[in-house]
Amino acid sequence: MREVLPLDDFLDTLLADEPNLGHLGRVPAHSAVELVEELDSSPLETLFLNALHRYPELAEPVLPEFDAPASADITALAVPQVVAPVVPEMQEQNSSVNTSQSTISDTDYTPTVTEYGYLHERVARSFQSIVCVINGTQIALPLAELGGIHQISKIERIAGKAQWCLGVMDIKGTNYNVVDGSRWLIDPNGRVADEVESPYQYVILLNDSNWGIACHDLVDTVLCEKENIKWRDPSRSKPWLAGIIKEQMCILLDTFAVVDMVQQGLVSNQQ
Amino acid sequence: MKQCQVWTIANQKGGVGKTTTTVSLAGLLAEQAYKVLLIDLDPHASLSHYFTADARVNHSIFEVLIAQYPQQRLPELIQKTTFTNIDIVSGSMNLATLDGQYGQMQGMGLQLTNGIKAVVDEYDYVLIDCPPMLGVLMINALAACQHVVIPVQVEHLALQGLTKMMQSLTMLETKLHKALPSTILPTMFDKRLKASARAYQTLREEYPKNLWKGVIPVDTQFREASSQLTPINIAYPKAKGNKAYTMALMHIQHQCRPGKIRKLPNHKNTQPIDDFSNDQGALHA
Predict the structure, then answer these.
(1) Which of A129, A193, B110, B285 could bridge A140 with an S-S bond, Cβ 3.0-4.6 Å?
(2) CATH number of the domain that B160 lies in?
(3) Any CB–CB contact under 8 A between A12 and chain B?
(4) Would the CB atoms of A146 and B100 count as touching at under 8 Å?
């Protein structure tokens, strides 16, 4: 995670007379995000009910116990790799990702504390999040844990990879694996027909990893108060689902947990 | 050659009227035949939407802040608005990611300063609308400006935010080795509320040097003008809110360029009223 500088040092760095901005010039103009003027305006109540329908555990009391289970074997956990992109191999040739078949990976994923800890522990008392839309559902991601937002350009499909992995996209000379937000997160059972899905507009890079998640739209940035989030106990299941922001009534994603899972070839409802 | 003034409109608290102040001052300056460039540093890009600017990210100020040569990039991003004498460099949502991506990069706080150098001969005023938090964006804006306009909602909680803002300015003055003169603009003053009166009195006592002695009143015509995407001086020239901003502008101009204030057209009652409890005059709603 990024180091937080004291304000004095922060200002000294930013206002240095001799800038060290060498790599900035490598940022091509075409890599920036293109915002859509007309934002998705689905009623929040609908989204909230939708979220509860999909994730009924959100309606249950939250147990903010963040100690690692005694049985957890930390050393056995896969820690997100930040250098080489690894696209999970399909174990079998299968046209759809079906959670009843463990075709993507047979790795047993234990959703527990990684070296990054849980989102609840990582964020400050108030933190900014960006709200995006994936298949009509609003998803929030903490800004401090994003590696950037880019307009989707050419994605190279790689044969034999899981369907929820759209392929590899070149951003500033680095290849990023792009997760199909709809197939991975919203509709892992593949119930939504391809033809009703609109094309993705953006890819949101997840922390410092080589993974990004594709989304249809960007809605807003919101300031979240820790106390105004219904936190989940991530040790139960779905570690990527950190909680729900009450005011916006949208899901809050744990980006490190997402990276952890996709690196193991797991979709959102697998564990 | 023009003598360009760069003003930053900033407050670390949100919802105090920063964008309304930027729009209103820009409208009045344009009315005075000054050429104005607006820079929208807020990821919400409200100012850009107000002027129906292209808010796509690859057309926004973000590109200047990450450019190796910001002086080259900024002129390419200037957009005309539908209002005479007002141009804009739009904001975009990915400005919100700047702190995370480049927030600790050496010299990052001077990118806007360098970018603006390219246009100082083209404009009389550059107004920068800030996001409500101290980060790379606000530091860029404060480093680039000669004057800071601080809208403050006249209510108790907002005054606490002002204390933080003034502390930040003091620290930045030391780091930048330059004075950052500021004008505190009391906004959303509601004369019906005793709390407003008390908060205003506190402002007068705690910030006697920086405070503009008038107030921007609560005025529904701000909202009406906003819905028409038009500065209030054009939509409702007789609105009390417009008259208040006219006087505020004169005060700020006087602070920045003593003796160079142009006579404002069609506005009477331009004397600041010191007594906020006086019910006479437009400033006191």
Answers:
(1) A129
(2) 3.40.50.300
(3) yes
(4) yes
